Batch of 2 targets.
Target 1
Amino acid sequence: MTVYLDFEKPVAALEARIAELQETADESAIDATSEIEKLRAKADKLLSDTYAKLTPWQKTQVARHPERPHFKHFIATLFDDFLPLAGDRAFGDDQAIMGGLARLGDRRVVVIGHEKGDDTESRLRHNFGMGKPEGYRKAIRLMEIADRFGLPVVSLVDTSGAFPGVQAEERGQAEAIARSTEKCLTLGVPMIACITGEGGSGGAVALAAADRIVMFEHAVYSVISPEGCASILWRTNDRAADAAQAMKLTALDLKGLGVIDAIVPEPVGGAHRDHSLALANLGKVVGKMLDELAPLDRGQVKQKRHEKFLAMGRF
């Protein structure tokens, strides 16, 4: 069953009515085609109108939708010959951050990303996409492999943030995030970062300090969650919507600020409604960017990346 967000309730009511009519028609052999088509057109228009004017807080809800495509969907659809590589060679294997060798079209790449899981069991196994130090050290290891063998890196970012638990802090969470960010910035090969859902805090930046940063249309990217920001500023997370508005966390806001390079369109109603179309759109954008960066040598890649980040926030 489709999971509907609060602001989608009118659409949910129409689609429930369509399902009822279809079921009745199937059981009684009544021709309800005309009525169903009218309701479908009405529901489609309502969905389109709703998603055309989403607030930043509503976009945050869409970015967190449990049915959005996750790392495993990207691997199954966009990439071929995926060979997973596990472990940080120091502590263990973090299932919140996954990666390995793959092909994107005819190009060999290293792909790294967050996996949130899509049911209770998998969400617990992947720790809801919240990476621990060993996850970021795994990412560093994979980037070093990419650098050594001249393979471009594609990262898929979807996390509320790095895991804040005591054990993670004891194993050097802040240092691991900083080293992962540093590795992104010093790579001699091209790197494309894709914010596919929620890009939260340093846990996202550690995989997103790339030559090109792209975001899905309804993804969000920020230094803190709206709830966390509201709790700090107003001592209550009830004002998360106000915080989201002020934080400029949407793809359109960040494109205007020069933080990201491209916005990938989503199907009407969000990427969760049509994985195939959403992933195809992303694949085209990433492939084009890799082609643009391919002629650059190692020195040019590093120089242009440094110039890109040093220019952010400059007025």
Note: The chain has two domains: 6-53, 60-311.
Target 2
Amino acid sequence: MGDLMKIFNTRTGLKEDFIPQDPFEVKAYVCGPTVYDLCHLGHARTYINFDVLKRYLISLGYKVIHVQNFTDIDEKIDQRAKKEGISPHEVAERFIREYFFDMDSLKVMRATKYTKASEYVPKIIKITERLLELGYAYRSGNTIYFDVGAAGGFSELVKDLNETIVDEIRVQGKRGPFDFVLWKVTGQGFDSPFGIGVPGWHTECVAMSMDTLGETLDIHWGGKDLIYPHHECESLIAKTLTGKRFVRYWVHNDFVLFKGEKMSKSSGGKIYIRDLLEKYPAEVLRTWILRSHYREKIEFSEESLEETQVLYEKICKAAAKSRDKEEMGQCAKDFAAIFMSALDDDLETGKALLAVEELSDRVLEGKVKGAWRIFSLVETILGIRLRAPH
């Protein structure tokens, strides 16, 4: 496979050599959207950044087993269904289709397998029953809670809850303030030994990921907002079930900001992907996202997208000029080394694109030969199709 790439592991807070369990295969799980609305720019960032990691690992010779879920059990889905006079299933299926439309437009490679929470309810029930048997869960009123204290507390991703979590609510009936829901009896939803109701969010991803990828994942990717409580709770559930490390590399991308605030569906501060695609080519939007490192915040602005469009068009012109398949000169080889070295260093896509921009300038000035291989890497690894100029 050559030199090892380094990736930042949220668990340790360090860049680490990436060494999967199997030297030829990577097991990766990505948290998917809750399907009650269209995808916004924040979603685009999560799935484009992971897509580049996936493409890069494939280019290094790995087989990537990529599983992504859809959260199709949620109050927001129910609320939308009631408002529109249709079933929650119809709402979820509609926005799953819309998700694929947006991601296909952005050239995001499809996962090996997609899972839906609703299809895993029997496995979620079995997990909940097992946690009750082991003494890591308890019933209080209409709710089955996970007992965080009995499991030894959180320690995987959040090292000090007192500093990180300011106002955790102590709900009446909970043994500890950080205990979380495994099953809630509501009288509607799914039948279970605990009563008709719905599963807790965190249990869903444990059931889906362990069923499809096994007890230990190589990579678990998601937005930074999922570190707590979602990923911390997932990890604790899995650890109590198996006694093994659930995830080898936790990887989280930072937020897209809109007017200084995190972009999200719940806050209302969102820009839909398809609205942007009416103004800009998908390649420009993808390039804009990749100009920043995945662990940095990005502030959205029309000006930055327009600047990116100018950059994209310049790269396309240089790529078109390099289609003669000349042998790579030393200068082109040096730029190729810079490009690959940037990706080896925790997926520094911004640095990789800076190298491509400088290379493009030199190509257009007639100073570099054989650069076509590098532009090919831009297409295959960064997933940015370089269209011939009109």
Note: The mean pLDDT is 93.
